[in-house]
Amino acid sequence: MLEQTINQQKDYILKSHMRCRSYQVESDRVYSRKIITKEKLFEKLEAKRELILTATPFMNQLYSFVKGSGFFVILTDDEGCILSVIGDEDILSEAFAFKMVPGAYMDERNIGTNAMGTALVENSPLQVSGDEHYINVYHRWTCSASPIKDKKATVIGTLDITGYSEAVHSHTLGMVVAAANAIEKMLETQSYAKALSEAKVYHETILDSIMAGIVTSDVEGNIVTVNKGAAEMFGYDPRELKELKAWDILSEWDSVKGDVKANGSFMEQDVNVKSRKNKLQFNLSAYPIKDDKGELKSLILVFKEVKKGRKLADKLMGRHAIYTFDKIIGRDENFLRVIEFAKKVADSRSNVLIMGESGTGKELFAQSIHNHSERKSEPFVAINCGAIPRNLIESELFGYVEGAFTGAKASGHPGKFEIADGGTIFLDEIGEMPIDLQTRLLRVIEEGTVSRIGDVKEIVVSVRVIAATNKDLNLEVEEGRFRKDLFYRLNVLPVRLPSLKERKSDIPLLIEYFMGRISKKLNKKRVIISNEQMEKLEEYDWPGNVRELENYVELSVNTESVPEISWVSGSKKADALEGGKLEYPQFGPDKDECIKLEQVERKHIVKVLSVYRGNVSLTAKKLGIGRNTLYRKLESYGIDCSETRR
Question: What predicted TM-score, i.e. pTM, was given to this entire model?
Answer without folding.
Answer: 0.49
